[in-house]
Amino acid sequence: MTLKVEVDEQRCVSAGHCVTSAPDVFDQRDDDGVVHLLDGAPPERRHEQVREAALLCPAAAILLRERDGSA
Amino acid sequence: MPEPKALPFSARDATCPFDPAAELYELQEREGLPRVPVPSPIMGEFEAVELTRYTDAKDAMSDPRLQMGFVFDPEQPRTMMNQPGNLLNYNGADHRRLRRMLTSAFTVKRIRGLLPKIEEIVDSRLDALEAAGPGADIVHEFSTPIPTLVICELLGVPYEDRESFQRRAKIGLDVNTTREEQIANLAEMDAYMGRLVAEHRRSPGDNLLGSVVRDFGDQLTEDELTGIGNMLLVAGHETTASMLSSGVALLLQNPDQLAVVRDDPEAVGDAVEELLRYCSPAIALPREAAEDMVVNGQWIEKGERVVTSLLVANRRIPGAEGDLDVLDVRRTPAPHVTFGYGPHQCLGQQLARAELRVALPALFKRFPTLALGVPEDEVDYRTTALVFAVNKLPVTW
């Protein structure tokens, strides 16, 4: 399974869920709190955290593209 | 004298104030969207579409067609809904512009940096509680001072002024007031905050108001700065105080769950999410439909106002495990809407979480024999305001 992560900085409202859910994948810019993507193709062990971040994001600013490795 | 009014969409059960009123569950089951009368000191009674289902609530709060809808009109008297600077009065790009001036102060990193200060404040209040002795009121000694001290420190508002700004915040959130009282109250709030803003203009302090003046002062009017300050001050202490009191009251009635919060540092984060979900103290402010629209197959007409019951939405979250009418601090956190949803989701939510995660375990560790000082059914709850709260919570140990 591969997972590609994209973020929409324009939509981001800096609620911080992504940073608390998946701190190795997301950070926030110091000057305005907007999401900063650390890893656009996180390893499988982080996938669940990343899905949680996308679920909790109140602005739908996290876009996930999942592809099954066997397909 | 007439009965004090509660807001229908945040109505609570008469015997258990943590539970939504029975009619909210009934509406949740009923097809279509009801129209209900909503009392408001500022707007007078108005009719609104009431959303009670979780999915409807989330969809509505993130739909740009449902707008906060209160455009500042300088010709009209100032009210909380006619106040520049208050983020809750803005939509779209205007809202984003203002919110982004404040978000750097509320990032996860910045809030982590505040933890030592929060711990110090909590310790000082535990000392004060101990000094007050058994029979002391948790609301007075603990729940109100902690978030008030934190927001004073963060914003740059003198703590000595608390009695007057807490009184004004209470009036501002009281549904059972007149429009005239609200206008007079806001004038007092503006006069107070206006003085603080003027001081920061002269010499910006090392705090949030100071840094907003320093970084964005040339893009903001005095009115906007005053509105920002008022919003942060009210939002920063009333809601978290309510959560602290409610958390203490609930955990004292559920000793096995209290033990989890006291003894397992790993479990505190999830426990706080559950308390937030279950208590849901604040309301989502009304929205207005900017055009005819359909929410999950249900019509809302242009110009209709829309209110959302966060309280009952949190009791039926699709996919969440277990019985959501029961408090269970060990449950996998359910994605609650206590902080709202969409672009207006609570700016200070990470700060609120940090305060709750520090204060609750510290209280139960310091006072292992803590118990309610009155019978459970005599705890004095406030159910007729925009923010649910506990008025008084005497404890013994």
TrEMBL record, chain B:
The reply to whether Cytoplasm figures as a keyword in the UniProt entry is no
Q: Which UniProt keywords apply?
A: Heme, Iron, Metal-binding, Monooxygenase, Oxidoreductase
Family annotation (SUPFAM superfamilies): Cytochrome P450
Any GO molecular function: iron ion binding
Q: Which PROSITE patterns match?
A: CYTOCHROME_P450
Family from the record = Belongs to the cytochrome P450 family.
Q: What is this protein called?
A: Cytochrome
What is the phylogenetic placement of the source species in the record?
Bacteria, Bacillati, Actinomycetota, Actinomycetes, Kitasatosporales
